[in-house]
Amino acid sequence: MKKYIIIVLPLLFSLIVQAQQKGSVLIKNGTVLTITKGTLETTDVLIRDGVISRIGKDLNTPKGTRIIDASGMYVMPGIIDAHSHIALDAVNEATSPVTAEVWTGDAINPLDVSIYRALAGGVTISHALHGSANAIGGQSETIKHRYGTVDPDVLRMKEAPRTIKFALGENPTRVHGGGQGIVPRTRMGVEAVFRSSFSEAKQYMQAWDKYNDGKNNKGFKGTAPQYDLRLETLADILRGEVIVHCHSYRADEIYMLMQVFKDFGIKKLVFQHANEGFKVAPELAEFGAMASVFSDWWAYKFEVYYSTAYNASILHKNGVVTSINSDSGELIRHLYHEAAKTQKYGGLSDDEALSMITINPAKQLGIEKNVGSIEVGKDGDVAIFKNHPLSIYTIPMMTIVDGIVEFDRKNDADDMRIYADPDETIDVTLYGTGHAGDRCMQDAQFLFYK
Amino acid sequence: MKNLKYIFFSVILLVVQQVEAQNEKGRKGTFALINANLVTVTNGTISNGTLIVADGKLAALGKDINIPEVAEVIDCTGLSVYPGMIDGGSRLGLTEVGSDARTRDYNEIGDVIPQMRALTAVNPSSVLIPVTRISGVTTSLAVPDGSLFSGTAALVNLHGYTPDQMYAGFEAIVLNFPSTGKRNRWDSRSGEEIKKDAEKALKKLNAAWDRAVVYHEIDSAIQAKNSSEEMKYYPEMENLLPVVRGEKTLLVEVNTANDIITAIDWVSDRNIKAVFTGVSEGWRVAEELAKAKIPVIVGPVLSVPNREYDRYDRPYANPGIMLKAGVKVAIKTGDAENVRNLPYNAGFAATYGMGKEEALKAITIVPAEIFGVSDKLGSLEEGKVANIFVADGDPFETKTQVKHLFIEGWKIPLESRQTKLYDEFLERNPGLKK
C-alpha cells in the first residue's frame, strides 16, 4: 500500500504542477501591439508567474526571469481562435437534433500535433467547438494551447464561461431531415426545434422551481421532477449562464434565431461563420449579437454562394463585434494573415484588423478580462513576430502561454509529436489537403460517405 | 397630346431603367499607362515608365515612349504594373458550388479518359471568375481530376464569353500518379489495402500506357505506308498518342516522396514531356527532381504537412527548397473559389526561403515557360499579350489593392458579385427601420 502511495503521490503532484505551470519572462525592446492601448515602440513586457505584471521601458529583470530579446520584433497578444476543432477526438454527436447534454470537454485530445502547429502561428487559445450536425449541438470547451502534456485537464481554460454550439441551415437539415427522416428537414423545422426545446426547458425549470419552493413546506406532497441533463443545459442557457455559438450562413436564418432568442429572453449569442451576416448587420448590432467569420471562404456549398470577403468589414463598420476564425487545422496556422484580409477587403486599420483575432474573439468567448490584449493583469499569452504580423513577410518567432515559451522557431525540433503510433505500418501521408468545406461535419461523415 | 405625354414619360422611364440595369463591361482600346513602376519580371523594374496597350498587346514599354494620340491615358503615379498572375493548376471554371455535384464538371467517370476536355466545361459565366481576376490573377489552368488519366487540362484567360475566347494556348493530359498515401482524412483503408490499391493502379497505368504505345506503333506504320487505312475509333488512345510521342505535356499529379521517386523512374523510362504537380513532399527528394530535370507546379503552399512528424513549415518552405536544388518551380492553388489567394501562396513561399523575386516568377514567367506560352504571357515585354494588373503596392502584401486590370488588352471593370454586395450592404438602405 505504502509503495503505491509513494508511486502515485509524486505522479499526482507532477500532474498538479503541470496544470499550474506558470512562467516568468521579460520580453525586451519589442514593438508592442497592445491592441487596446495603442502601439508602444521599444517597450518591455514583464510576465511574472504567468501574468503580465509590467509594461514599460527599461524594466528591471527580477531574479529567475528569462530574458527574451525582441529588438526589431513585434510583440502582440496571443491569437485567439473562436472556432476550431483541433485537439478533439470527437466533434459531432450526430444522433439527435438536440444534444445539449454532451460536451467536447469530454473529448479533448492533448496529443494532437495541430495544437503545436497552431502555436507556431501565434495562436494561444482556441474554442474547441462541437460540430454543426445538430440544431442544438454539444457544449464546447475553451482551451489554452499548453502543449506537451498527456492530461486533457491541463488544456482547459478554467476561467472561460460555458459555451454551446447551435447550428442552422444545411447541416442539421441534411443530417436529420435528409439522413434520418426526422425534423428538421427545412429551415422551418430548425426554428421549431429551438422553440419546442426552450419551451420544454422552461416547463422543466418551472417544475423544479415549484418543487424547490414547496419541498420544505409542511404537508408538501409533490415529488422531484426527473433530472434531465439535456434540459438542465437548456435551462442554463435561459438563465444566461451559457454563451450560444451558432453555426449559420444565411441572413434569414440568422434573423430567425434572434427572434427566437428575443422571445425566450436569451442574450448571449455569437454567430459562427455568418457568411450572410453582413446582410443583417444592423439587426445584429441592435441585438448585441457578435459574429465570428471566415476571412474569405465561400462557394463550397450553396448556402455560402452569396458571400463576400467584405463580410467582416461590413459587420465591424456596422458596430458588430467581429472575429476571424479558422474552423481548420490549416487556417489556424496563419490567422494573422487571414486578419490582414480585412485590410484588403474593406480597408480596416492595423488595430481593427488585429482585434479580429485577439480582443474580439476574447469577448465572444467571455474571456476578455483575462486575455486578448497586452495589459497589466492579463494572462501572459504573447506572440512574437519578425516583421509586422499583418505583413505577408511576417514570421511567428515565439509563442508564450502563461509565461511559458511553448513555441520557439529557433529551438524547436522538426518532430513535435507527443505520441507516435507503434502500430503504424505505413507512412500516413495525406495529400489534397485543400479544404472541402467547413470541418463542422466531422464524425457526421458516415451519413454521407457510406 | 395625352399620348405624347405618355410616350415622353415612358421614354424617360426606359432610360432610367437602362441606366440602373447597366453593368460596366470590359473595353478594348489603346491605353497609355504613364508614370508607372513597371515590374517586367524578366528585365528588371523600370521606374517612372510608360506602357502602351494596343490591339490586345503590350505595344511598347520603357522610359521614353511616344503616347499614341488615340490612347486613353491612365496616370499610374505611385502604382506598379505587373504581368497577370498565372495559377498553374485549379478547378476554376469547372465547379461553381463545391458541395453540389450538379455544378462539378471536373471529374468524369472512367479511369483512362484523356479525351475529356476541361476547355469544354469551363463556364465563362462562373461567378467565381470575376472574383478571381480582380485580385490580379488573369490566367489559370483548369485541371480535370478524379481518376488515373482524368482528362485534358486547359489554360484559360479569365475573360471572355465562350471557352474559345478564353483559351490561352495550352492543353495537357492529366495523370494522377498512383498514390501510396491516404486520400484524405476520412480514408479508412489499412496500410495493406493502400499498398494493394496503389499496386493495382500502377498495373492499370502500365497497361494503359502499353496499349497507347501499341496504338502509336500501328498509327506510325499506317502513316509510313501512306495508307488510307483508318484505326478504329479509340479516343483514349488517340489522346494519349501525342504524349507517347513526347509532343504533348503530361501533367503528373504526385505528392509523397516515395511516389515522386517512382514517378521519376516511370517518366524517365518512357521519354515523356512530364511536369509534376502537387509535389507536396518535393523537399524530401529535391535533388532527385533536379537531376531528372522535371519542372514542378507545387501547391497549395498554404497547406498542412503531409505527415504528423514533419516540421510545421514544410509546405511553406517546399518551393524554396526545390528551387535551391535546381528545380524549375511554378506555384498553383489547386483551388476554385479562392484562386484569388494565389499571390498569398507565393508570398508564403517567398517568406519561407524562396525570396520575393523568384516567388513572383513562380506565378508569372515560370508557368508560362512550362506551358510553352512564354512568348505571349508571364512578363512585361513588347509584343506579349496585354495581361496585366496595376497595384498600389507589392502584390504579395495582403492589404495591396489592385487599381486597374487588363486581360488580352481589355480593360476589365474591378467588379465582382462580392464587391457589389459590399457596395449594397456597407450602409444598407433601409437600415433597421423601413
Automatic annotation (TrEMBL), chain A:
Residues 1-19 form the signal peptide. PANTHER family: ALPHA-D-RIBOSE 1-METHYLPHOSPHONATE 5-TRIPHOSPHATE DIPHOSPHATASE. The keyword Signal applies. It comes from Fulvivirga marina. Keywords: Signal. InterPro entries: Amidohydro-rel (IPR006680), Metal-dep_hydrolase_composite (IPR011059), Metal_Hydrolase (IPR032466), Metallo-dep_Hydrolase (IPR051781). It holds the Pfam family Amidohydro_1. This is Amidohydrolase. The keyword Transmembrane helix does not apply. Residues 311-391 form the Amidohydrolase-related domain. GO terms for molecular function: hydrolase activity, acting on carbon-nitrogen (but not peptide) bonds. It comes from the Bacteria.
From TrEMBL, chain B:
InterPro entries: Amidohydro-rel, Metal-dep_hydrolase_composite, Metal_Hydrolase, Metallo-dep_Hydrolase. GO terms for molecular function: hydrolase activity, acting on carbon-nitrogen (but not peptide) bonds. Residues 321-408 form the Amidohydrolase-related domain. This is Amidohydrolase family protein. It holds the Pfam family Amidohydro_1. The lineage of its organism: Bacteria, Pseudomonadati, Bacteroidota, Cytophagia, Cytophagales. SUPFAM superfamilies: Composite domain of metallo-dependent hydrolases (SSF51338), Metallo-dependent hydrolases (SSF51556).
